[in-house]
Design brief:
By secondary structure, this protein is of the alpha+beta class. Helices cover about 15% and strands about 30% of the residues. The longest helix has 8 residues, at about 15-20.
Length: about 170
DNA sequence: TGCACGATCTCG
DNA sequence: GAGATCGTGCAT
């Protein structure tokens, strides 16, 4: 299978998030070895209007990459020790992203970042051209369920309860 | 220049 | 149920 094309990333995060389920996340380590994972859980963050999305605070040092065209890597440190891996979607100036919550049976955004050895150096890298992390196409899987997003109670009722967490039933 | 807090996890 | 641990955003 080949890398997902730019067009795949240009749609809304809520549209792309379920389509990422079952896709292959490829990671090339420093020693040249390669690991391939099946994306098993995602979460969508839909731009400036979405109070749960970091971009709702506007364009800042941290959110800058979300304003770029889809296909970029958005990583940030949370709780001082976990690197969250996100996929930027949408067109330029449509600050949306999808949090990768699970790969294979490794479920939990913090665990995913640790497994993939993510760090600040990945910020802004492109899934279209990177030689150490990218996503390959795979048959679309429709056997998934939805649930509210995690850890965003502060976003208020309207956004807190959106069923924008997508979980593969099996992989 | 300082400070409170967070898209989390693990251990007890 | 609490601690680990630190960059970011906003107040001072």
């Amino acid at each position: 299978m080949s890398r997902l094309s730019l067009e795949f990333y240009l749609n809304d995060a809520v549209t792309v998030a379920p389509k990422l389920l079952g896709k292959t996340l490829v990671r090339v380590w420093d020693d040249g070895t390669i690991s391939r994972y099946c994306i098993s859980e995602t979460e969508a963050y839909l731009g400036e209007i979405d109070k749960a999305c970091h971009a709702s605070k506007g364009r800042t040092t941290r959110t800058e990459v979300m304003f770029a065209e889809g296909g970029c890597v958005y990583v940030y440190l949370i709780y001082g020790m976990y690197w969250m891996l996100n996929v930027v979607t949408g067109h330029e100036n449509e600050p949306q992203a999808i949090l990768i919550r699970g790969i294979n049976n490794i479920v939990g955004s913090g665990k995913v970042g640790r497994e993939l050895k993510m760090d600040k150096s990945f910020y802004g890298e492109s899934f279209l051209t990177s030689n150490r992390i990218w996503i390959e196409d795979a048959p679309e899987i429709l056997d998934f369920k939805t649930a509210p997003r995690v850890g965003i109670d502060y976003a208020g009722e309207e956004w807190r309860d959106k069923p924008w967490r997508f979980i593969l039933n099996r992989y």
